[in-house]
Write a structure and sequence with these properties.
MoaB/Mog_dom (chains A, B); 26% strand; alpha/beta; homodimer; Molybdenum Cofactor Biosythetic Enzyme, Chain A; CinA-like protein (chains A, B); Alpha-Beta Plaits; Maf protein; elongated; six-stranded mixed sheet; 414 residues
């Protein structure tokens, strides 16, 4: 059972609008156990549309289309489907009356150009549109079932739920349940993570396990299919357990969880408090922590010590230390974290220093991307030195994650 | 000249991630007068990829692909291009050395997995990746030129600009010119902004002007087409001038500029310095300012005074003021900003307090979404009280924008 989703419109191929319908439909199909192999977006061009629809009718079992059902000249879907199916367009009187009634409701007479919205390829079914004037079309062409819906998201959502989804059920093309499980890690690169999981991520493994990198988070996704939820859970659980065992403390959460969720959760659980002193990350560690509801119970506050004089005046870092080690150094990171912890009276404090660029610092041995982070706690500290490649934004966001991760790793061992 | 854009990855076809690369690339091609006829997204499946690439090589003149160039087993683009072109994969020593050097820079040895990233279809050119380990591929297959780039947006952006775009120029496949001009505003809602521009944003206006809202920024986009850049500029300029005249100080920038860019630019121009004290925004105002290269010249630093005791101990806000007015009040916002300005010795300071939710505060008269911001300067202050509807994240990001906007409006009048 292979699905294809087609979006129609030059406003999308030109880049003017972002297509979000395809993602929404893919998720809906996945919930029913139907996996999507292709998204295709095509401009408002008759020949290109015919080619795309013909191609889809040959390579997919189910094709959901959005767009091209309006009353204007660049709305081609009706005609395209008729041509690819080799049938004529015929008027549906019931649809025509309904469209006229919508205009009457607004105190207007239906313009002539809306008449074409009541035309359907012979042999197709009407998908009723309770939200607007464009009915959808349901028909089989070659090997595939086609469901054509309007491009306006609010109209499409309702038509999918009320008209298309029940038809998928009747066709018996639901494959039961399809579940994606996402496991999030931080601390190693994509290839280092995969090296620990080569037997699991290899092509053909059942269930399928994919690996993706997103801003220094490396995630594993387990895709499993079965006739019911319990069966799918039984497929996923042993694989998830194996992944967790192999990756150990690299794993910090699942699904949409971020490092800050893990840190705030651990702080609450272990009844510890934290404060933050930031240079290179400029407030981002603090912001990440404050994104988590309930952070105020464990997060006292923080200082962005951006200019050196703030590090000296507000935190009390000795000028001599900055002079001798350089402000971007492990020594200064540790001193900042220690002083911050004492100043704010918290159990823990994390610090960041570094060069985010684009301009380089004074020390050629410490190029843009050089960062240091420290976690201070009573009786000691842990630290991390790293060199990032990337933009200013990437260096800042990833360094903030390093700082959060130091706190997470420490808290996990308590 | 017909272009096709291919995105590769099951995380996109499954609906887990939203594809934004295709839109970005379509816009870039449009700027060069190249129109995109198709977007195709395909899962990490060898046969489906081969079919998609073969199809594109026959129906398009230019094909830009993103994704599938990583070091893992589900990265198939190298193999797919070689198979469709009917050539073998050969190792590029220079690329291999470069990838190794990237790992060395971080003090690590290249994992064996990454070796495959130095493999290229015979006869192709290497697209150098200065942002990461995945080089791109440039080659002609059947009638189409292919440019394969990484899926990570930051890597793709740079590779497109530095490697692909110059090659498009050399091929002579640019047509006329298509320019989109974006004007960004903050301070009023979408309909209030449009009310001032109804004659310009109406359908059929030449040039076309669209209006979009994104996280409290309202942007106007002017779309113009012509045979050369000068002609297009002459179409855009009078419309832009009219928009700026109507909207006045709501306009803070163009294209990708954000409020923090305007604020840092104004601070540099007027030779003023700023500091920040944040409660509800938790470090986000500070982070926004530090996103701007060169911020260290004008930004001293900031304090996230998240818990009340930090407001009292670190800033010296009188406990009685908090008790009498409530911590979420205009009075506390003003007091925080004043004390922050004196503490950090800056010309300006901004503050934020409020309730971001999801849990409500103690005062039923101040529901979730109630926020106050103040700007302190020598001799006075400006303030803004607002009530946002939305999620915790929306309340935080939008309130940070209110604080930046207070600074911008003040600096503009200096």
């Amino acid at each position: 059972m292979r699905a294809e989703i087609i979006s129609i419109g030059s406003e999308i191929t030109s880049g003017q609008n972002l297509d979000t319908n395809s993602q929404w439909l893919s998720r809906k199909l996945a919930e029913m156990g139907i996996s999507t192999a292709y998204h295709t977006t095509v401009a408002d061009d008759l020949e290109a549309n015919i080619e795309v629809f013909r191609n889809a009718s040959q390579r997919a079992d189910l094709v959901l289309c959005t767009g091209g059902l309006g009353p204007t000249q660049d709305d081609l879907t009706r005609e395209v489907m008729a041509q690819v199916a080799g049938v004529e367009l015929i008027e549906d009187l019931e649809s025509l009356e309904y469209i006229k009634s919508l205009f009457l409701k607004r105190g207007r007479v239906m313009p002539d150009r809306n008449k074409c919205q009541a035309l359907f390829p012979k042999g197709s079914e009407v998908l009723f549109n309770e939200m607007g004037t464009a009915p959808g079309i349901w028909m089989k062409i070659n090997r595939a079932w086609f469901g054509a819906m309007p491009g306006v998201p609010s109209e499409m959502f309702v038509m999918y739920e009320k008209q298309v989804k029940p038809r998928l059920g009747k066709l018996g093309i639901q494959g039961g349940v399809f579940v994606q499980r996402k496991i999030n890690t931080f601390g190693e690169g994509e290839s280092a993570v995969e090296d620990k999981l080569l037997d699991i991520t290899k092509r053909g493994h059942v269930p399928e396990v994919g690996i993706t990198a997103s801003d220094a988070y490396i995630s594993l996704r387990i895709f499993a299919r079965g006739s019911n939820l319990q069966q799918v859970q039984e497929i996923i659980e042993p694989v998830e357990a194996k992944i967790r065992e192999r990756l150990g403390d690299l794993v910090f959460g699942t699904e949409d969880q971020k490092l800050q969720d893990a840190v705030v959760h651990l702080l609450l659980e272990k009844r510890k408090t934290i404060s933050v002193v930031e240079s290179v990350t400029g407030g981002l560690v603090s912001h990440y922590i404050c994104q988590v509801p309930g952070a105020s119970q464990v997060y006292a506050g923080g200082i962005t010590a951006y200019q050196n004089r703030i590090k000296i005046d507000e935190l009390g870092v000795p000028e001599s230390l900055i002079r001798e080690q350089g402000v971007v150094s492990l020594e200064v990171a540790i001193d900042l974290a220690r002083r911050c912890r004492l100043k704010f009276g918290t159990d823990l404090a994390v610090s960041t220093v570094g060069y985010a660029g684009p301009e380089a610092g004074d020390d050629p041995a410490k190029p843009v991307g050089t960062v240091f982070s420290a976690l201070s706690f009573e009786g000691g500290e842990t630290t991390k030195a790293h060199h990032w490649l990337g933009t200013r934004d990437e260096i800042q966001t990833r360094t903030a994650k390093i700082a959060l991760n130091l706190a997470r790793l420490y808290l996990m061992k308590l």
